[in-house]
């Protein structure tokens, strides 16, 4: 029987991989042990493992929706029509995709479907490059190794319409730790329901990683981002700062300063410093975030104006009442004009009223404008 919809495919894959790893340590009881660790029904885990051990050809395609498992290295994919490199497109409806030059394709290609097609080809023609785990490797994880055996992927009208140019000699393995990847995948699914268990898994996946000196790595950056979010969720902003800072620096190196992941990591870094009481540092981070959002979304976009409003609150926390009031009032005026009826305008107005009341309570002498 198929797994319920509330169990995503990457969680099922991660559980199966964990059972395989446990069986390398002990021959019996692996399913029960893993089920107990993840608070799952052992019978359900047994069904997942049984299904995973059937021949790959009998299993339906199950693309992953996880971005860092889905996207392939930049420069590998090329369009058959415009002959240009295909790049990551902005997510639409939370779906990752690829797009080439403007005017070539009307819609981006589904990145998970591309990874699934390429991963199945690798499993069929070059399975030796996949690290042995004891169970069949899902296609989207096999696609992680695409750059090692493929020199070029030419894509036609659909994700299934591809031409593969194989390398004469595969590139040696870069040391990808499948177990570390799976820990992060499990932690992502446990973050909302079991944050403490998710935090433990993320700490395990980041074992040996010093956030102050570690080089940029997509898996480590993803784990660091999730760990920073969990620390903030659990009320530990000081612990979130180091991981949010590493995640930001790493994503900038991997994707550039205005990539959605880089902007998200920068926002986490700013929030962590603000909650920790480091208002001066938070002010500079929020200013940087607002500048990036202005270039990406536009100076009058909601995200840009919301960040400016938060910057005003940080200014007030630093004691710059007049500057905070001026910035927040200007932001409210622009937001009301550009986004009429948006509830955020009312929230900004409440914050402005709070600043005025706070000044009155403390006896500040400010000229009313």
Description:
This is Tetratricopeptide repeat-containing protein. The chain has 369 residues and is mostly helical. The chain has three domains: 45 residues; 100 residues, no CATH class; 147 residues, Alpha Horseshoe (Serine Threonine Protein Phosphatase 5, Tetratricopeptide repeat), CATH 1.25.40. It contains 16 helices and six strands. A hairpin with a 2-residue loop joins β2 and β3. α9 runs antiparallel to α10 and α10 packs parallel to α12. The longest helix has 19 residues. The N terminus is likely disordered.
Sheet with the most strands: spatial strand order: 1-5-6
State the helicity in percent bands. Answer: 55-70%
Report Rg: 24 Å
Largest sheet: 3 strands, mixed
Give the total of domains.
3
In sequence order, what are the helices and strands, one letter per element? HHHHEEEEHHHEEHHHHHHHHH
- Tell me, briefly, the overall form: globular
Specify the CATH architecture of the largest domain. Alpha Horseshoe
Strand content: 5-15%
* C-alpha end-to-end distance: 68 Å
- Find the count of extended strands (DSSP E, 2+ residues): 6
């Amino acid at each position: 029987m198929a797994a319920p919809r509330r169990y995503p495919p990457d969680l099922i894959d991660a559980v199966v991989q964990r059972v395989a790893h446990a069986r390398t340590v002990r021959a019996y009881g692996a399913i029960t042990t893993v089920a107990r660790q993840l608070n799952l029904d052992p019978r359900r885990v047994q069904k997942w493992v049984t299904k995973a051990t059937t021949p790959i050809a009998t299993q339906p395609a199950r693309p992953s929706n996880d971005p860092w498992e889905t996207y392939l290295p930049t420069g590998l994919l090329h369009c058959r029509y415009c002959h240009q490199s295909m790049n990551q497109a902005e997510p639409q409806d939370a779906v990752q995709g690829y797009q080439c030059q403007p005017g070539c394709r009307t819609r981006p290609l589904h990145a998970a479907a591309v990874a699934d097609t390429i991963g199945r080809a690798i499993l069929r023609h070059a399975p030796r490059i996949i690290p042995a785990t004891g169970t069949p490797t899902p296609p989207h994880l096999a696609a992680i190794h695409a750059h090692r055996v493929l020199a070029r992927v030419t894509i036609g009208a659909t994700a299934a319409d591809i031409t593969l140019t194989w390398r004469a000699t595969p590139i040696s393995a870069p040391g990808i730790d499948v177990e570390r990847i799976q820990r992060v995948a499990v932690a992502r699914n446990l973050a909302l329901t079991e944050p403490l268990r998710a935090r433990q898994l993320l700490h395990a996946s980041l074992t040996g990683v010093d956030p102050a000196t570690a080089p940029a790595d997509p898996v480590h950056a993803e784990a660091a981002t999730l760990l920073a979010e969990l620390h903030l969720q659990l009320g530990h902003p000081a612990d979130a700062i180091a991981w949010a800072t590493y995640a930001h620096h790493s994503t900038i190196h991997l994707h550039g300063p205005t990539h959605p992941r880089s902007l998200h990591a920068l926002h986490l870094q700013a929030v962590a410093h603000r909650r920790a009481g480091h208002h001066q540092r938070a002010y500079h981070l929020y200013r940087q975030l607002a500048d990036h959002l202005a270039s990406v979304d536009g100076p009058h976009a909601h995200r840009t104006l919301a960040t400016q409003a938060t910057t005003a609150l940080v200014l007030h926390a630093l004691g710059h009442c007049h500057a905070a009031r001026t910035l927040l009032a200007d932001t409210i005026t622009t937001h009301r004009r550009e986004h009429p009826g948006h509830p955020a305008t009312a929230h900004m107005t409440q914050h402005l009223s709070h600043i005025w009341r706070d000044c009155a309570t403390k006896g500040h002498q400010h000229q009313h404008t």
